[in-house]
Amino acid sequence: MSGTDKAAVTPLRPRRPCPECGRPSARDSYPFCSARCKDIDLNRWLKGAYAIPVRDDEETPEDPDPSRNDG
Question: Per the structure, how many domains does the chain have?
Fold first, then answer.
């Protein structure tokens, strides 16, 4: 492949800003720019910083037939 052929190749993933720092993403750590930003995000997941908020007043749906025993 010559240098002009490489320019004509469309990348599979568009370059996007890193979700951690905003620098352009790198191919080896996509969508992050580096292994450092990737590890920062993983640490947030492991600590539980990313969570779906829940309201305390929500009730769990109950079994419509209490006589049914699944266990």
Answer: 1
